[in-house]
Amino acid sequence: MPPSALREMVRVVPERRDVANDAPRASSQPSPPSSTPPWRPQEPTPRGTGWADFVPITQPPGVAICDAMLDAQDRRDRAELIAAERARRQAIIDAHVEQKLFEKELAREQAERSSFHKAPGDPDFPARS
What we know:
Blueprint: H1 3-12, H2 16-22, H3 63-113
């Protein structure tokens, strides 16, 4: 640093004594009491055995409600499956009955075609060529 800059800084700063006078002085009087309450002796901490109290393991709260909701949904699902199985079985029965009716109608038509009661004027009578 150039000497001229150092002289300029010394000229601007007040004397040391003035700076020291600005500092707070230690007072000879005691400081006011703090806001903390006065010290009270504490009761001695009871000594334990080192074992914790027994707490039985239980389900967390709300598990019973969730179980009830799941049981209700299971009942609905089971009823839906039963209804679907009933409809499937009924469709099988209906198809079987329809097949039997078709076979019966076919047998009746075949019996009418081969019947001896036909005459040459009947429309089902086989024509000779």
